[in-house]
């Protein structure tokens, strides 16, 4: 752990990003994007693929749609991406080191958790169920639930409304620059996971190599925030 205090933290809720934070899936995600671009004869670079981290596929496709030529729609490219996700030979997504232990600690402490991901609901529920951690989360906020994806704070604000806590008392775990910006814009404190850029971690509480390095977290009394829990994730 670097740039962090060993003093125990307090939180009324813990909010997790999925890819690159809760699950080690960035190699898989980048390979999917590489295959999509390559299928249409478009070269990519590691820097370009890394820049997609933490963002909704719809936003990435909209930004690069002009590169795919005429006649291709965002819906068609998203279908292609889903089909590629079913191919063999892709890196396997797995839980980040320390993830299960941290989720158990939060549950034992009575701290509610939510998932806030740029992925779709089917993608999120599939991986949470496959890895055996779905029952840890009181609510999932996915790409289908928001109008504006990260770095917009909409997803984190929605998760806090569903949990009935003030965002200023929430603690977010994020790995990408876009996700960290979204967390900070919501008013929540943030722990940066992995090796985000120095600029993106300037205002985080801690930078941890993985979730096993998370400081102790103690429950804080929640403050009502625009009502209590809302419905679960939207449909894809």
UniProtKB/TrEMBL annotation:
It comes from the Bacteria. Pfam families: Hydrolase (PF00702). NCBIfam families: HAD-SF-IA-v3. This is HAD family phosphatase. Coiled coil: none annotated.
């Amino acid at each position: 752990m670097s740039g962090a205090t060993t003093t125990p933290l307090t939180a009324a809720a813990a909010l997790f990003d999925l890819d690159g934070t809760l699950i080690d899936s960035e190699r898989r995600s980048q390979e999917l994007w590489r295959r999509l671009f390559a299928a249409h004869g478009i070269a990519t670079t590691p820097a370009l693929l890394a820049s997609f981290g933490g963002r909704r596929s719809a936003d990435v496709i909209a930004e690069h749609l002009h590169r795919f030529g005429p006649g291709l729609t965002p819906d068609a490219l998203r279908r292609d991406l889903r089909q590629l996700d079913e191919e063999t030979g892709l890196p396997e997504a797995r839980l980040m080191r320390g993830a299960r232990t941290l989720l158990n600690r939060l549950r034992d402490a009575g701290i509610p958790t939510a998932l806030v991901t740029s992925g779709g609901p089917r993608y999120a529920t599939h991986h949470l169920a496959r890895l055996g951690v779905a029952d840890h989360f009181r609510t999932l906020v996915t790409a289908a639930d928001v109008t504006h994806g990260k770095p917009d704070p909409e997803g984190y604000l929605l998760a806090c409304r569903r949990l009935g806590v003030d965002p200023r008392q929430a603690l977010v775990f994020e790995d990408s620059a876009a996700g960290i910006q979204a967390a900070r814009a919501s008013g929540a404190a943030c722990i940066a996971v992995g090796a985000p850029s120095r600029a993106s971690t300037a205002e985080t509480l801690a930078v941890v190599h993985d979730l096993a390095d998370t400081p102790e977290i103690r429950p804080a009394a929640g403050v009502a925030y625009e009502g209590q829990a809302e419905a679960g994730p939207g449909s894809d």
